[in-house]
Structures are given as structure tokens and as C-alpha cells.
Amino acid sequence: MKAMAEPLFTQNYCTLVAYQAGGALVAGRKQACSVALAGGELIIVGEQGEVDRAPVAAIQIDTPAVQRKLGASTFVRMNDHRWTIDFGLTGRLDRPPRRGPIAAMKFARARNQEFNDLLRQGGAAQLRR
What we know:
By secondary structure, the chain is of the alpha+beta class. Helix content is 26%, strand content 36%. Strand 3 and strand 4 form a beta hairpin.
């Protein structure tokens, strides 16, 4: 039995929604998800189990400029899918209690930035500058 490598990054309380070329989100319900970077792969797990998995080096970061400025979401292309991973809820649900909305957004942005940095370090291509 193959042992799974210790995750380099994990985050619960994310939301996941598909997007179209150009960055428009696909209408429909966002789903709760967790993301992990482990063993050189990005793994997205939704409410019903694994949603997608790909080697980090095969992932393309495709975040539009306006979303990069907001800083709480990452748009990725992997396995012919386009996913928006939003860290906004992490700031409200996965941080020290009794902090206001500004602290929540700062936390979400910091987690998103860490996620992006690790994707790029792992070889993910940055499509938009």
C-alpha cells in the first residue's frame, strides 16, 4: 500500500465553482470544497468526494486581473476543467475567533497567496500577468 505524502498545503472551507473562458463564473450553486497540495498534486475534494486531481506542473493559473486584485480566489485549469477556488469563507470559519470582517479578508487573502505561491513553486504556469 502506497503511503500518501504529508500535505504541503491544506485548506478546508473553500468554495468551488466552474468558470468559462474569459473568467465568467458558470451559473449554478457553488459547492463547498477542501484543497490540498500533496505528493506534487493539487487535490480538490467536494461534498461527494474527490472532484479533481492533477500534477501541479500540469496546472495553469488563470486568475483574471480583477480577481487577483481582490486576492481571495484562484482560477485554475486542470484536466480540461476550469475551477475557481475561493478562500473567502476560510477567513470567516478557519481563523482565530472575535476578529472583524477586515481580519477575515486579510486571512483569506494570505491563504490564497500562499496557495498561489506553492502552485507556482511546484511548476504551475501563470497564464495572466
